[in-house]
Amino acid sequence: MAIVGIICEYNPLHTGHAFQMGEVRRRFGADTGIVCVMSGDFVQRGQPAVFDKLMRARAAIACGADLVLELPLSRALSSAEGFAAGGIEILDRLGTVDAVCFGSETADGSVERAAAAMEDPAFDALLREELQEGISYGAAKQRALEKLTGEVGILRTPNDILGAEYCRALLRRKSAIRPLTVKRAGDYRSAALDEAAPSATALRELLKTGGWEPYVPEAAREVFASAVRHRWEYGARAVAARLRTIPEAEWKTIAHGGEGLWRKLRRACMTQTEPEALCAAILSKRYPATRAARLVLCAYLGITQDELTAPIGYVRVLAANERGKRILRESKKTGDLPLLNLGQRPEDRNAWDLEQLRGDLYTLFAEPRQQPEFGREKRLRTVLEDPQM
Predict the structure, then answer these.
(1) Which residue segments constitute the domains of the chain, with CATH numbers given?
(2) CA atoms of 145 and 184, how far apart (whole Å)
């Protein structure tokens, strides 16, 4: 049995995601095991997930995944490079994964070529030169790659950029896992919707107004129909209250707050409460909006820069079917990654306490009709069920 990994957020899972899982089995066989490494309650763009991690994991299993593991929060709220490296590390340390599948706008090998170029020592020198021009990191990386490879327009699209980071992480780990690209149609940030390849951004907007159902597989619709929805706007005052009480010494340690960004946010939170206004206060041409959002969220959750780079001590199992359970048993023999079910206490008591706290802080983003579910993390249990295929 081949085993293929997918690093994902499923915020929310839609027909394009289901197509990707189907494509994996078309290429590798119907008995292929699919392991998803999924962001938990907070996602890389610096926002609370629209549905909680357990609902999204259930939807993933219902739509074809066999095993869903939680990407630790420290990696989920990292840059694209840190997010990719964290997901690849988990798949590699399982010791059972043959390939990692990701979407690509080009799917022509440029992703792999870009990853190899970024590992060339000459790339870092070119990147530093471009950054001295005062442009954003993304733009500087683009220019440096074009100079090094001679390919104009290499890595201009979101999935290609992230895919290159997956390939780069594989190279750095000297992993035997091979990359598998699936052609991604459309633009995941688009305001328009394509039923075959919907934009997750547009789909989240439809969740507010209605009409989202055609863009979500039936099995996932059944899971999401009764799920509590979360939005940053619902927890805006909770975020503002937390930010206004952070002492200066703690501000200096907050993740993504380097180069004085934390000072801008500290000033802004004294007069602003809305997330858009807080992010706008620290935006510039050098820093993307997602970094600003991650800084706000990391300040709210108390995530430090050191925590972002700390070793991954363990990973939570969110959901598994029978095939997923077999993969887990094999991974415990061949891998070196501690895997814990939801509700199990890790050896690191501080990590356990932080899980409880951040789970409680997530519930403050729930729609107003819901009461905050404090102590939720202790009560969550891994979903174990039969395949629905």
Answers:
(1) 3-105+157-230+311-363+370-382 (3.40.50.620), 121-156 (no CATH), 232-307 (no CATH)
(2) 22
